[in-house]
Amino acid sequence: MKYHLLILVCFFNSFLYSQSKQSTDSVSYYNKLANSNLTEKKYNQAVFFIKKSIDFCETANKPESLANQTFKLGKIYYNQQRYEEALKNFHKSVSLFDKLKPTCTKILALHYIGATNTAKGNYEIANIYYKKADNLLKELKLVDHAEVLDYQKAMALKASKNLPMAAETFKKIIQKPDNPKILKTKTDSYYQLGLIETKLKRNDSALVYFDNALDYSKKSNNLIQKSKIILGISQYYKKNRNFDLAYSYLDEHYQIENYIVKLKNAKLDLNEFEKFKKNQSLNNTLKRESDEKIQLKTYRYSKLVSILAIALISILSLLSLALYKNNIIRNQNNLLLREKNKELILAKNKAEKASKARSEFLSTVSHELRTPLNAINGITHLLLEDNPKKNQLKYLESLKFSGNYLTTFINEILEINKIDSTKVEVDHISFNLKELLFNIQSSLKELAAANKNYFNLEIDESIPDNLIGDPTKLSQIILNLINNALKFTQNGHVNVIAKLYASEEENATIYFEIVDTGIGIPEDKLQTVFESFSQGSIEVNRKYGGTGLGLTIVKKLIELLGGEIKLKSEVGKGSTFTFKLNFKINREPLEIIEEAKPYSDKQLKHKSILLIEDNKINQMITRKMLENKAILCDIIDNGEEAVEILKVKRFDMILMDVHLPGINGTTATKLIREFDKSTPIIALTAISLDENRDMLLSFGMNDVITKPFVPDEFYSIIAKFFD
Q1: Per the omega criterion (within 30 degrees of 0), is the bond before 708 cis?
Q2: Which distant-in-sequence residues (6+ apart) come within 8 Å of 166 by Cβ?
Q3: Contact call for residues 661 and 644 (beta carbons, < 8 A)
Q4: To pair with 247 at 20 to 30 A between CA atoms, which of 9, 155, 509, 519?
Q5: Who has greater pLDDT, 603 or 263?
Q6: What pLDDT, on the 0 to 100 scale, is given for residue 690?
Q7: How far apart are CA 275 and CA 271, in angstroms?
């Protein structure tokens, strides 16, 4: 009996070993088949073999191989743009890796989750996983490979057509010091920047990036990479209709391609011969080993056949029972999961539609209000300039205040909608933070004096003079916070503090604090005060006025710049707002930009301007404003007639309304630019959520005036084009 038990144990050990070896061999075998099919672009076959490999890994209990194969399946789905299936497999792979020691493949899985979400437009989720991948990269001390992940992230942003963010990521790579390890990645980044700039029609910078890519490819002597770059340059010249240079670079591209093919063929012949010799030697060895194994198996076969049969029957019976039970449980769970997924998808779609409808509604309402508001503000301005009676002056000033208030309100609604729709871009330009804060303090001195407040500014001297960031959005944040502090404080103190929180070689973290001794905010309102149209209470709104949108914009802008705002407040004692922001340090001195000289009436006198505007009230207001400066004004109410008249008659300037009956202002401008390249064309628009200055300028317009007009700005922009 003991002898039979010993034989059974030995058999099971031998059986498990053979199964483990078979599994390992199967994973390798199926991987080889999958790779072969991927090379031939037979993606369905490749997926089939990877799934076979995954099944073997699960059966053989090989968690690391299972995690690797699941990641590979996700990557195939990602390359096919089947993003939902890709995400499912990437998340599964990460959950498997969580039970193992961290590896490079786990970093790639986290990074590909970010790339997939980027391709779907889910940038916030994508950034979370990019950060996880970066943290794991630092933990494994593989920082040298960060550029490759950044490159893949940029390619995902480019695939999702987010060209500005893709360009920023590529620029981070090319700014890294030269290193043989990242030479190929830097070359590819220069090449991709050239393609992006070409697409954005920024021809000069596109050519610079292509030239840099070509220079770097010479350092690495990578012919395939060089061929690709030369083809890109050829296509660039073709788009710019420089066919001679385009053909020259295309010819060079084909010469390199032919050379590469010759090299491959020569290498293939040599490899085939070496492979043949190795195979012959390997076949002889395998044949000898096979003969020995056959003899050994024949010897043992008679003794193990009966035990094998019994063991196999027992194992198969147990497996069948387990599979049957597992199949029932799995089917039940799958049905439940499908139902829950359907519910979640429906809820997600409803929420997205509601959010989109809200943004479109607010944008449309804000846009449509600007036209009548332009009439109100314009007529008010004209009446104030027309020597009104003293008893009328008070009413006109009130009307002007109300119009300006409504304009601010509409602008703030549009600002929130732009931030929510991710159409706001963050600038990275050099500026002097100390000078910016002093200018803000000077602009708000009158408001501080009106409420009898002591307004103090404390700036840490150790803050670098020149920082790189977005000064416009920073000014908007600080102006809103100080304006609130001064408005809700009377006979008190308002302190603005800026300190250097942390500093490295190229980065600085600045801590900002705005403290007031005003009315304060109740504890139960501290969480809701940052919500739209919220001011703490109805009484506060009635007494102090305001739109209730300022703090909402502040919070969204700070988050957009990578910070977080915090609030402490006590009723009757005041409020304290704090936040930290990161900036890069600019070691080069800032260029001194001279302020533009104010316009003079002589610049405008006797100039002839064609106004293309369909709204009768806006025609009357604009004409009156122009005639007040002795400007000659002709009016046309549609784009088609304007194009025909301009073919036979010239004007000193054209004021073009963007939204016209028939062809719109942008189309009319394109048609005019076909025969008139020099006459300045100024766009008149109530800019909506989908419009921006750069878009309008791309049609050939020289500048933009936003409705409702601010008179000084209106005249200043026009005067810029008259010496």
Answers
A1: yes
A2: 154, 155, 157, 158, 192, 196
A3: no
A4: 155
A5: 603
A6: 47
A7: 6
